Amino acid sequence: MQKRLDGHAAGTRRVRVVTGGVLLVLLAVLLVACTTVPLTGRSQLMLISEETAIAASEPAYFQLLSEPAAEGRLDNDAALRARVEHISGRIIAQAIRLRPETADWKWSIHVIDEPETINAWAMAGGRMAIYSGLIHKLEPTDDELAQVLGHEVAHALARHSAEQMSVALATNVAINVWAVRDHPSTGSLAGVSLAAALAIQLPNSRGAESEADRIGIELAARAGYDPAAAVTLWQKMSTAAKSGVPAFLSTHPSHNTRIEELRALVPTMRPLYEAASAPPVYEFPPAASGLPGVAGATGATRKSDYR
Ligand SMILES: [Zn+2]
What we know:
By secondary structure, this protein is mostly helical. It has 13 helices and 5 strands. The protein folds into 2 domains: 1-36; 48-306, no CATH class. The longest helix is centred in the first third of the chain and has 27 residues, at 7-33.
């Protein structure tokens, strides 16, 4: 390397030092950002901590549920709500056994009445929703519904939701365009919370999908739900897709081998299912089972409470 000590060279060196410093910082960020999935060891990109993702998801969750609540479309079918809550409760109890620190999460599940929407989602920290269309169009058995809910709990448990927020944050400009142009209802959200609202509408990666399938079928089996139902659920999902792509498949991209992979897991899961006598049920805290300002399951119209 040629050494020149004139002012220009010194300036260049300064630039190099600064550039080197920036690279070091970037490297440090990447090292921090690359973590591994708690249950499978897959490496994942995390631009924010799980704690930040959970905190930012709370306002996003209430914002997204405020509209159906105001319109009386949230938890308005008491029997369906009770069914979803019971199955989720059994699965969450198993999730807490796998990751005990998640006992401190504000796990919650709400049913959004949208008869044409086949979808469900989970935010960081276990804040979930399922659409009535999934029930009415797929007519799942309890064992099959447990596979959907197990899959969603698995997304939260394996930090996929926070991973999706990292993807959303990495495209900050896209977030703002998306929010302003297509989703004015997210207007009061900003920054990381806006990313939380967007994250549930981004497709998961194939790796995350396989992980959620694998963890979800195990959670359901340990909770006493027949693992064979994972196969029949996805068969129903695939039949529904032929009459128009259901929303669930746009955010949970399927792949040709999914059903075969699940079928191959059934024999391994069956002993867990058979051993699950009197599985425990997670009790949702009162604040989680009813939105603030929403009286019970009636979906009272008090929109201003969370705007
Ligand atoms: Zn998924």
